Amino acid sequence: MSNRLSKLLNDSALVSRFMAAPSPRWVVLCADLVIVALSCFITYVFSPTAGLDHPGWWFTPFAQGLVVFCAYALMMPVVHTYRYIVRLSVFEDIYRVVALVVSSSALMLLAALSTFMALGMAYFGIWNIFVVALLVFTGMVFTRLAIKYLYRILSGKSVRRTRAIALGSTVNTFAFASTLNNEPECHYKVVAMLSLMPDSVGSTINDIPVHPYSADTISEIFEKYDCNCLIFPEAQLKFMRSGVADIFLKKHIHLLMFSQMKEIDRKTGLETQGTPTVRNINIEDLLGRDVIQPDTTEVELQLRGQTVMITGAAGSIGSEIVNQVASMQAADIVLVDQAETPMHELQLQMEAAHPDIKIHLFIGDVANAGRLEQAFMRYRPRYVFHAAAYKHVPMMERNPSEAILTNVFGTKNLADLAIKYKVEKFVMISTDKAVNPTNIMGASKRIAEIYVQSLFYHIRGKSDSKSTRFITTRFGNVLGSNGSVIPLFRKQIEQGGPITVTHRDIIRYFMTIPEACSLVLQAGTMGAGGEIFVFDMGQPVKIYDLATRMISLSGLRPGEDIEIVETGLRPGEKLYEELLNDKEMTMATRHNKIMVAKVRIYDYNEVCGHLDTLRQLTELGEYHDIVAEMKRMVPEYKSKNSQWESVDKEISKNEVITEISR
Q1: What share of the chain is helix, strand, coil (3-state, %, to 5)?
Q2: Is the dihedral of CA 200, 202, 208, 213 positive or negative?
Q3: How many whole angstroms separate alpha carbon 172 and alpha carbon 472?
Q4: DSSP string spanning 480-548?
Q5: What is the reported pLDDT for 657?
Q6: Beta strands in 325-369, from DSSP E residues, in sequence order
């Protein structure tokens, strides 16, 4: 019978519209007003005092019912009983109805007390207030339940559901479990709950049994309910990051995260509850720590209305800086990059997201000083964020001259032009690989750091007048950046493996791209000039463990479905990265996640002498001599797993000979 009724109703255009989208807010509001009107009619028209004489028209049942109706109508926009999608909401709509009834009743009690004190008689009877409240509550709740039930029937039960267990505090867990079970289009059905609150253990809520969360009993509970899927609310993500996720993954339990998206009503501007979503956990969700929330107020004050130049604008870091600077209402943003296609894609993205901001595309290589000067001359930037660099370690080990041309002389070109065109702040993005470098890339970035810092102190020493402030920021790997390990692992998993790891014990620091870029902007704002800012990167992550997690999150078994193969350290690669030199110390700043490194200040003229030598060697293409000069300039640069280890031996041998000759 229900199937026949469902088919009959589904043929109706009105029902089809009901199923396709939720009813407008005004429809829900009107339905609630009708319920209130009927409740007032029943209460006052059929009241025992309806036929009695009244002191005036305003004390008649009709007038009193009208006033009660107005009181409820007045409170509805305040508590927003109509703001939720009735067929999807669970507790929120009930809370709103209770709030409406209580607030309206309180308003009427206040009116009754006021008339009693003024006239000696109460305008409203307490019994009538209670009856209206009871009828309104019953009518509104019943209507909502009926709509939810009707939607469930019309949707049918064609969706085959996966059995799952929900994790969380009891009340919140029950809320999202009920939402999932009452949403016919959802592919998951919660059959049990794991509670983090011991008080409710052993109870059953709405036919869903509640068990205590314990690492020792997880396997038994999932076997008992014949499921291998865990769903947890987004609010419990921090708890899962603490190592709990690994407990489930090791038992081959599929992890899913539940979130209730919020939507903004275009007409009222109010936040409303949207459709619930369940999604797979990404490795980015579990890596690291709580997201750093920088204070962008000062950054916005400095950048709003300014012309900002960003080099390497089409790269992972550069494009995110572009987006964040645009969101801070910079007047003009100059995008500098030599990658044509990525620049075109970035242009389309920016035109769609920020149509009111002037975006200037400037194709050029930072190693081309003449081309760069055209950009400075044309746009006169006030702030420069320098993200352009070669970053792949093995590639630069084979091409040291290009590392020098781009990472060192590209930075020098920009820094010199920043002085010439009176840029207010120049922020260079460096890397943790510049600390005790073991490869060409890290050493080239350290030389770039040395140059901009020595230039700042040299200019400041020559004149007391205001000049460009040069600031350097260092951080580790960013999640999902171009060429990083996570996209590589995802691709290898999709291809069926194996996942390649250079060394079982290799560790790295990770930070999300938006997080790193927001700290770059904040450090740039804080900097007075000459600082090298170091970010708190959290705890390092073992790359081998990262690989096993990603395999498990894909629903596969490490070592069985997907093999993990060690390939050996790549040229110039080291097991761990450092954010500070062993001889360096840090100073705290007003931001607890940003520190200033105390580093050796190089003499500008001495640095320029080294760079002149490097330029000559680069033009000649003498790789061996280039690396030797880099090592003389950065004594802590010691090659590892690289063909350039021989240069270290030569330098050490020459130093011994020199010492003996003395």
Answers
A1: 50, 15, 30
A2: positive
A3: 45
A4: T-TT-HHHHHHHHHHTT-PEEES-TT-EE-EEEHHHHHHHHHHHHHH--SS-EEEE---S-EEHHHHHH
A5: 58
A6: 332-337, 358-363
Q: Which amino acid is residue 523, in one-letter code?
A: A
Place of tokens 């409406």: 100
- C-beta separation of 128 from 43 below 8 A: yes
Q: How far apart are CA 531 and CA 594, in angstroms?
A: 11
What pLDDT is attached to residue 186? 66
Q: 409-431 burial by CB neighbour count: b if 16+ within 10 A, else e?
A: bbbbbbbebbbebebebbbbbbb
For residue 544, what are its two tokens? 């081998």
Alpha-carbon span 40 to 144, nearest angstrom? 20
What gap in Å lies between CA 410 and CA 392, rounded to an integer?
17
- Read off the pTM: 0.68
Q: What is the reported pLDDT for 45?
A: 65
Predicted confidence at residue 237, as pLDDT, reads: 79
Q: Is 433 a catalytic residue?
A: yes
- DSSP H helices in 363-474: 369-379, 393-398, 400-403, 411-420, 440-462
- For the chain, residues with pLDDT lower than 50 are 1-2, 5-6, 8-20, 51-53, 87-88, 156-158, 263-272, 581-583, 659
479: left (phi over 0), alpha (psi -120 to 50) or beta: beta
pLDDT at 265: 47
What's the CA gap between 311 and 389, in Å, rounded? 9
Of the residues 433, 445, 631, 638, only one is catalytic, namely 433
Burial 56-65 (b: 16+ CB within 10 A, else e): eeebbbeebb
- Confidence (pLDDT) at 250: 85
